[in-house]
Amino acid sequence: MTRPVIVAANWKMNGCLSLVDEMTASLAKVELSENTRVIICPSFPYLASFASKQIDCNLNANIALGSQNVSEHEKGAYTGEVSTEMLNEVGVKYVIVGHSERRSLYKETSSLVAHKVAKVLNAGMTPIFCIGESEQERETGQTNTVLASQIQPVIDEIGIENFSKIVVAYEPVWAIGTGKTASPELAQETHQFIRQFIADVDLEVAKKVSILYGGSVNAANCKELFAQQDIDGGLIGGASLKVDEFSHICSAV
Ligand code: PEP
């Protein structure tokens, strides 16, 4: 089963209009292999600018726009929130859901995350569903239990038959923004557990679903990480703000 290699950029609360310009100009020159998909997730105010630059720069159809979050509500009195319909309207194709920063800083529970995953799918976009353990959870041997407790509510909410329509991003919390990347062996071992957990419910779905690694991925370590059997690309924070480095990652895979 050949799964695409997905390189997704999470700009977090960083970037500006000129970064949108520079990134789209650079991506327009990047040679992407046929099997590579690139997703750029800027902050809400830059989504529409990115979408219009995609057209101006005639970006490859394999480069898509993503959002970093979405509301679980349809519409109404939810000041500061953004709906799936709004994201759809500006050309968003992917939505990051359940990033560890949303889980820890904004107290998003696994059941809320599962609800958002379903909302995004029902709106015709692809959720990038994030999971990962803390340093303490890894050190005390709880990694697999934690990951299972994050995945199961999504399977229950959307049904296993829909699980291959989402992208999973495994991001050990201790590796996010710390420069402490999981070794390729450790990342592979955990990805294998995630795929096996899904395979125990449905083998065909497990073969199809894309599982990305996130946590201090950069131009120097991406190749070895993405070469692992169960790693289908990466969700990239810090290095995705550096135009040359990110373009290099996209063309290197
Ligand atoms: C992230 O924010 O999803 C992430 C992986 O960040 P970084 O690459 O900076 O560790």
Number of helical elements: 11
- The CATH topology is TIM Barrel
What ligands can be seen in this structure?
A: phosphoenolpyruvate
Taken as a percent bin, the fraction of beta residues is 15-25%
CATH A-level architecture:
Alpha-Beta Barrel
Largest sheet: 8 strands, parallel, barrel
> How do the helices and strands follow one another from N- to C-terminus?
EHEHEHEHHEHHEHHEHEH
Question: Given the helix and strand composition, which structural class is it?
Answer: alpha/beta
> What would CATH call the homologous superfamily?
Aldolase class I
Low-pLDDT windows of residues: none
Number of E-state strands: 8
Main CATH class: Alpha Beta
Helix content: 40-55%
**Cross-sheet strand order for the largest sheet:** 1-2-3-4-5-6-7-8
**Count of distinct structural domains:** 1
Q: How far apart are the first and last residues' alpha carbons, in Å? A: 18 Å
Rg, Å, rounded: 17 Å
Topology:
Layout: E1 5-10, H1 17-29, E2 36-41, H2 44-56, E3 63-67, H3 84-89, E4 94-97, H4 100-105, H5 110-122, E5 126-131, H6 135-139, H7 143-158, E6 167-170, H8 184-199, H9 203-208, E7 210-214, H10 222-226, E8 233-236, H11 243-252
Parallel strand pairs: 1-2, 1-8, 2-3, 3-4, 4-5, 5-6, 6-7, 7-8
Helix pairs in contact: 1-2, 5-7, 7-8
Bound molecules: phosphoenolpyruvate.
Active site: 99, 171
Pathway: Carbohydrate metabolism; erythritol degradation; Carbohydrate degradation; glycolysis; D-glyceraldehyde 3-phosphate from glycerone phosphate: step 1/1; Carbohydrate biosynthesis; gluconeogenesis
Subcellular location: Cytoplasm
